[in-house]
Amino acid sequence: MTTKWADIFAPVMAQGREVREGQAILGQAIIDAIEKKTSLTAQAGTGTGKSFASLIPLIHQILKSKKNKKPYRAIVSTETLALQAQLIDKDLPFLAKLYPGFSYRKLMGRSNYLCFEVARTAAVADLYMNGIVEKLKLRQTSIMTGEKQEIEKILGRDLTAEQWSKIASSSQFCPDNMCSAEKCYSTRARDQAKGADLVVVNHAILAVDIEMKAGDVLADGMLGQFEALVVDEGHQLEPAFVKAWTKEVTERELESMAGSLADGIELAKQIKSNQQIGKIVNDALDDLRDVLANTKKYYMLLGEKAGQEWHGSQTSLSLKYPLGRPSGPLAYAMEEFEVENPQRLLRAEAALEEAIKYLFPVVVKAMEDKMKGIRKLRKGYTAASSLLENVRIISKAFETKDGIISQYGTYGANVEGYVGFMDKKPYMKITLTPLDVSARAQQLWGKEGGQTNILLSATLTDLTDGTFRYARECIAFPAGAEVDVNSPFDSREQQLVYVTPANRKDRFDTEQYSFSELLDLINASRGRALILFTSRKELDRAAEQIQMMKDMGHFPYKLLVQTKDADKRRLKDEFESDVSSVLLATKSFFVGIDIPGESLSLLAIVKWPNERYDSLCKQMIIHWRMMGFPRWYERISLTLFQQAAGRLIRSMGCKGVVALLDYRANDSESNVFKTAKMGVNTLQSRVTQDIAAVKAFLQ
Ligand code: SF4
Question: Which CATH architecture has domain 5-103+196-244+439-485?
Answer without folding.
Answer: 3-Layer(aba) Sandwich (3.40)
